[in-house]
Amino acid sequence: PRMQVQIGLRIFTTIGFVHGAYKARQLWSTIDKNYAKLHGVGLASIVADHVPKSIAKGGAVGVAWGLGIYFGDTFARVGECLINNTVDLPRRKWQHVFAGFFMGGVCGSAATVAVNFYTLRPFGHALVAGSVMVGTTAAGAYLGAVEYRKHQALDPEHNYKVTPRPWHEKEYQKMAPLGENGRWA
Question: Domain-by-domain residue ranges, the chain?
Answer without folding.
Answer: 2-184
